[in-house]
Every structure is written in C-alpha cells, then in structure tokens.
Design brief:
The relative contact order is 0.19. The protein starts with 6 loop residues before the first strand and ends in a 6-residue tail after the last strand. By secondary structure, the protein is of the alpha/beta class. Helix 3 packs parallel to helix 6, helix 5 packs antiparallel against helix 6 and helix 6 packs parallel to helix 7. The protein contains seven helices and eleven strands. The strands form three sheets. It has a five-stranded parallel sheet with strand order 5-9-10-3-11, sandwiched between helices.
Length: 268
C-alpha cells in the first residue's frame, strides 16, 4: 500500500535558471505564499515542483534533475495534489472536446468538467458513509457527514449572491438557477469559474491531506473573494496545504502576512 504524505515540508531546486539561483524553501503544513516582483521566478518554482511529481497526481518523483521534495513523514512515497492556474486559455482541440461536451471551450471549462465527475464520486462516498452510520443507529454522525457539502453550497450561494445565482440543490451535478434560468458551470464568468474550481478541488478531497498549488489565482477574482480565498479553502478541508504565488495584498489581508515568503529570502 502506498504511504501518502501529510504535506510537503521542504522544497529544494538546484538551479532555477541555467545553473543559477539555488532555492531552499521550508514550508508550513498549512499556508505558504510566495511573493516577489515580476520575473523573479515565482511561477517557475511552482512549475518545477509540480513537474517533479508524477503526472498521475500521486507519486513523488525525485528523478527530475535539480528538484527535491521532502514529504512529511519523510518515508511517504505518494502525495495528493492539484494545481490551479490563472490563465483560462482556449481549448486547442475543440473537435476532441466536442466528444466530451460541446460547451467546453477553455482550460477552466475542462477542469470543471473533471471536477464535476469527482463531485459526483464525492457525493456517492458521503452517501455510502451516511447509510452505514444510519444502519449503526448513529443518526447524529450521519447528519454531520452531510454538513461539509451543505457548507460548500452555502459558500457558493453567498459568493454569487450579487448576480442572483444559486446552486440547484435538488441535482447531483452542479447547476445554477438565475432569474428562472438554469445555468451550467461553463456559463459562468471567468472569476466565478475560477472560484468554483478552487472550492470544488478542495472539497472533493474529503478532508484528506492534500497539497493545493495555486499560481496567482487571484487575477480574475473580486477583491473581496481574494481576501477570503485562503480561509474558505481551509474551512472546506482543514488538512489542505496551500502553496501559492501572488501579487495581491488582498490575499494576505485576513491574517496571512506571516505566511508570506519572498523569493529572494529562499534564494542561495
């Protein structure tokens, strides 16, 4: 059985660019914010770390030259992770996507498509656990299991309140009602898609230890959403380790100043 890491405790990069800039970054188990001016290497650091992990999202891979990840515990062989990127680029192969869903036109749409599938699996798993608790006569425990999904729905409704969008709670897939119309996630604005993708990514991990990389996720988000971003992620999964790059002061306004690391501070 693979042993999963609780979080990443240290990142080392031998050479950020052409043999220069050795990076050593000691990480907190929960929130890590990388800051610095344009071109200093924030996204490069994140990209190198993500590429050093097996593409199936599990296996820690130390074979990539120049990158070493130290998990906690150190004998862990696997890690759960995902990455949220800023750019909502067009999908290049529309013909292939048409066989999946003709409404998928961008990278965020494609990410939301996969998250919808994970959301369905998440609900099945929760439902099975609720049934098991009820069979044991644990009604209170069964009710508790449904609270996180409800909290997710309440958060999204609250965030989208100004546009009148509400999650349709009678459907298993995510749909929204707005002034009598039903909308799918692909019809949301870029900022709404981005926030929904982040919250779904955290939720469907179902309170498991998990590393969420975010590369300047705030670019398309309303400033009030930026302020709440970290707190909402931790509320939906207290076991998540957040590693993000940002230019925005708003992201750290809710008490996360001490979680900020400048690229120059970890460069040797």
């Amino acid at each position: 059985m693979p042993k999963y890491a609780d979080y990443i405790s240290r990142i080392e990069i031998d050479a950020l660019w052409s043999g220069k800039k050795h990076i050593v970054w000691e990480l907190s188990p929960r929130v890590n914010i990388l800051s610095g001016i344009n071109g200093v290497g924030k996204s490069t650091i994140l990209n190198k770390v993500v590429k050093s992990v097996n593409t199936n999202g599990d296996i820690i891979n130390h074979l990539l030259k120049g990158v070493h990840i130290t998990p906690m515990p150190e004998d862990a062989t696997h890690i759960r992770f995902d990455i949220i990127r800023t750019l909502d680029s067009p999908v290049l192969d529309l013909e292939t996507m048409a066989h999946v869903d003709t409404r998928i036109l961008s990278a965020l749409d494609f990410q939301l498509y996969h998250l919808q599938r994970k959301y369905l699996d998440y609900q099945v798993n929760i439902g099975n656990r609720i049934i098991a608790e009820l069979q044991l006569g644990n009604a209170e425990a069964a009710q508790h299991l449904s609270l996180k999904k409800k909290r997710f729905q309440d958060i999204v409704d609250e965030l989208f309140e100004d546009t009148g969008k509400k999650i349709v709670r009678t459907e298993n897939e995510i749909r929204f009602s707005q002034i009598g119309e039903t909308l799918v996630p692909y019809q949301l604005s870029s900022g709404e898609k981005q926030m929904l993708a982040i919250l779904l990514t955290v939720l469907v991990e179902d309170d498991q230890p998990y590393v969420l990389f975010m590369d300047e996720p705030e670019v398309s988000l309303h400033i009030e959403w930026q302020k709440r971003l970290i707190d909402l992620c931790l509320e939906l999964n207290p076991q998540v380790q957040i590693i993000l790059t940002t230019h925005s002061p708003a992201v750290i306004m809710n008490g996360w100043v001490d979680a900020v690391t400048e690229v120059t501070d970890i460069t040797l």
